[in-house]
Amino acid sequence: MTDLESWIKYGEEMRRPLLINPELVNSSKIIIVGGGLSGMCCALRLSEKKPDLEIILLEKKDSLGGVISTWTDGEWICDLAVNATRPHPAFWRLIEDLELSDAFKPSNQKAKSRWIMMNGRKHKLSLLSIFRIGLFKMLKSIKQSRKGGSSISELIPNKQIADALTLGIVNDTAENVDADFLMPAMTGFGLEPPIKKSSLNKKISQSYPIFTPRKGSIASLNGGMQTLTKALEDRLIKSENITIKFNEVAQSIESISSKYELPESSIIWAAPGLYGESDFTELSIFVIGYMDESVSDVKVGYGTLIPDKEIPISGILNESDLHNSKRCPQGHRLFRLMVPHDRWDGEEDTILSHAKKLLGTNPVLFSKIGERKIPTYKPGYMNKISKLKDNQNWIGWSVSGVSITHVVCEAERIAELF
Ligand SMILES: Cc1cc2nc3c(=O)[nH]c(=O)nc-3n(C[C@H](O)[C@H](O)[C@H](O)COP(=O)(O)OP(=O)(O)OC[C@H]3O[C@@H](n4cnc5c(N)ncnc54)[C@H](O)[C@@H]3O)c2cc1C
Is the CB of 31 under 6 A from ligand 1? Predict the structure, then answer.
């Protein structure tokens, strides 16, 4: 594949390093540790590319999907982690290959607006936000960030806007987040595309199967993200060269290599662990539902980011506004609340009373639906991992990219090495 073809296929993901031992391609049997989206996609793409390769997928729990799962209660439905995808041709290819095209829809165009709560007031995020930061200041900090290792707070010199962005993506404040990791195209991390960005973007947009997404749009699945992990699981079970082993906790690459008598280069680690178990932030996820008339003052949109640490809710996602598939009973609206543990006293009533102030006083549903951990990516992170020796195989969101488009794309890039 030419350099240009790779950039059309993978876009800005080409800037992110692959932590893959070159010896992997000589394996006749491989073990993938971790049955989240990353391990599942990697197993799928390798099994398609190399039907004679024996693949064992090890998962410590008794189910696949990792952090992705979908909560339901009657007609109410909400994802616990990712609920929609940003445009990337690799994700569209996955949906098409899994024959999920009919269940995959662009999000509601009327729900594009995002707000940020600053000094007790909601402000719409738009190009105007850049003017709030100051165009000159912004350009200066982008230039500065090109030296590498900056934090998002250095890249975006407005604390509230920067925090809102990072809290919304990685549940951490901007001074703790590596700019090269979150925005490599802006900081100029890694390789540069071989042609002008505008020409490349045009070629990428022509490469989407199913439908070409609008710029800045998102898309989601009927029934939530569990529709994807279920279809992937069904496909993996049917693949003749894949064995799935549940309830197997791998201690390390070394231990799996010795247990299965395989070289370390044949083990792909698709689970957390690159930098130790303590490198996480934790959050709880709540849902709150209303009858339409109780929240008629809440504008239809994507959601609201809340950087103010005095409020235990860091983000409100207007779930039933943004998806094209149903998320609640007719005549109702559903909101998802993100609650970082370092802001919260642990009392559910605290969340309920804040949610009532922010949304409306008469909810018909309020429930904590789960907890999640998100890896931390401190400033300098991307520089650090790109210098790691490629004697082991590390993939997934704990490594070089946080989003599902990253892990889906990474699986294709690895299969292509064979
Ligand atoms: C609250 C939240 C919101 C998110 N929102 C978005 C979003 O809007 N957009 C987006 O693109 N992404 C989002 N993400 C990120 C997205 O969910 C991840 O990129 C993706 O699901 C990561 O998949 P993974 O397979 O790399 O990791 P995981 O899902 O963490 O999977 C790792 C797997 O490894 C298993 N495992 C762990 N240790 C071992 C061991 N020792 N032995 C065997 N198995 C082991 C685990 O049980 C798990 O199944 C969000 C994540 C969270 C938590």
Answer: no
CATH class of 109-113+279-375: alpha beta
Q: Tens digits of per-residue pLDDT, 219-237? A: 999 999 999 999 999 999 9
- Measured in degrees and rounded to the nearest 5, phi and psi for residue 250 equal -85, 135
Q: Is the CB of 34 under 6 A from ligand 1?
A: yes
| Centre of ligand 1 from the C-alpha of residue 403, in Å | 9
3-69+85-104+204-277+378-416 with 109-113+279-375: one CATH topology? no
The chain-wide mean pLDDT, for the chain, equals: 95
Residue nearest to atom 14 of ligand 1 (CA): 82
Ligand 1 geometric centre to CA of 62 (Å): 15
Task: Name the band, by pLDDT with cuts 50, 70 and 90, for residue 277.
Answer: low
Domain boundaries, the chain: 3-69+85-104+204-277+378-416, 109-113+279-375
How many other β-carbons are positioned within 10 Å of the β-carbon of residue 84? 21
Query: What value does the mean pLDDT take over residues 88-104?
Result: 98
List pLDDT tens digits, range 137-162: 888 999 999 999 999 999 998 888 89
Task: Report residue 181's pLDDT band, with 50, 70 and 90 as the boundaries.
Answer: very high
Ligand 1 pocket member 90 (CB < 6 A): no
Tell me how far apart the 2 most distant CA atoms of the chain are, in Å: 63
Residue nearest to atom 7 of ligand 1 (CA): 82
Query: What length is written for the chain?
Result: 418
Would the CB of 334 count as within 6 Å of ligand 1?
no
**pLDDT at residue 160 in the model:** 84
Q: Is the CB of 61 under 6 A from ligand 1?
A: yes
* Whether pLDDT at 127 is above 80: no
Distance (Å, whole) CA 401 – CA 367: 30
* 377 vs 396: CA distance, rounded Å: 13
Establish whether residue 253 lines the binding site of ligand 1, counting it when its CB lies within 6 angstroms of any ligand atom.
no
- Give 281 Cα–ligand 1 centroid separation in angstroms: 13
**Distance (Å, rounded) from C-alpha 218 to C-alpha 85?**
5
Q: Would the CB of 39 count as within 6 Å of ligand 1?
A: yes
User: What CATH superfamily is the domain 3-69+85-104+204-277+378-416?
Assistant: NAD(P)-binding Rossmann-like Domain (3.40.50.720)
The angle formed by the CA atoms of residues 341, 347 and 353, to the nearest 5 degrees, is 105
Nearest residue (CA) to ligand 1, atom 49: 66
CB of 66 closer than 6 angstroms to any ligand 1 atom: yes
Contact 262, 75 (CB under 8 A): no
